[in-house]
Amino acid sequence: xxxxxxxxGVCGLSCRLCPGYVMKTKSRCPGCKTTWRLGGxxxxxxxxxxxxxxxxxxxxxxxxxxxxxxxxxMGKKYDSFKCYQKLEDDITFIQKHGLAEFRKSxxxxxxxxxxxxxDFNEGRSKSYYCLVATVLKVDEIxxxxxxxxxxxxxxxxxxxxxxxxxxxxxxxxKKNYYLKLRKKI
Length: 185
Prior knowledge:
Blueprint: H1 35-38, H2 43-51, H3 66-75, H4 87-97, H5 99-120, H6 126-135, H7 138-151, H8 157-175
Helix pairs in contact: 4-5, 5-6, 5-7, 7-8
């Protein structure tokens, strides 16, 4: 099966902001809807392949689908290796504007993520920056990165990362954002 948007999960997740997608190694995941992922345990992906749908919301059974419903409910409380905090917002956006517009919005976020990774990653911040790129508003990220860039002249990479983290943490505290993966206990 050939999908037009391999980097957008059938469930509505954006691969572009996933730690596994933004790797520069051979183990990089090329996206949820690729042959590489079909060997994995995602029952939602396997269902979509059988039904030949690009996005669960396009399936005629989407409103009554228990599998997608359970996935969405879990996404309201927990994350796996990827942040699900904006899953419902992303699904709503896709249903309203379509996958092409969603891809465009995620490419903007991905560019900002790569800016953070290239300029402020001390080797331990990738997952944190992926969360930031998912949770914060684009203008908040742009403003924070610009501020960190102007305040980080002469700092080493660890100090730069610490500075950007502190700016994001202040935004998160003020706006009630959660910048950690929410794990089941």
